[in-house]
Design a protein that fits this description.
The chain is an alpha/beta fold. Helices cover about 40% and strands about 25% of the residues. The chain has a single domain, classed as Rossmann fold. It has 6 helices and 8 strands, in the order βαβαβββαβαβαβα. The longest helix has about 35 residues.
Length: about 200
Amino acid sequence: MTRLVVCAALAIEAWAVASRAGPGRGFAVVRTGPGPARARAALGRLPAFDALAVAGYGGSLVRGPRPGDVFVATEVRAAGHGVPCRGADALADLLREAGLRVLRGPLVTTGHVVTGAERGRLAAAGALAVDMESRPLAEAARTRPFAVVRAIVDTPDRPLARPATLTGGLRATRALRSCGPALRRWTERLDKDRRKEVGP
């Protein structure tokens, strides 16, 4: 069986992802703490895994996505270099089947909360969403299946530190709770694909 580890920066993110996954869950959840330095430090605490995912809140760099939408990265960028998210297409399909509005594209990891004009600069470079933890974890996955699932909280039209952030956060938390069952089904899909590769 595929051993999936899901990394979440915050306690509420870890709780939300695990809350509806069901008995046995099918994956381990590791809280890394916020920011790339803490994510990198958490690598030594990860249990053995065959697939790795990052789940939590994120920000949209472009107009269109709404709080509560789910962003699944096609690659994770930092310092101009991208790491592909192998196997994440299947997870995006499972999230759509769960009734979530799923968006796909490049994600950039930064060491700080992105606001104002910086959103535009990162978007002009091709990124669609931003977080603070995924890049070190993407590198740790190497050639194994890797996915980033970010429930959108803030957008250029709805920045952080505004009253609407509370509503957006509640929507994003509901979306994260719906991600748990999809992550469990993702491990089943990966198992099935592995059996096909091995053959009868």
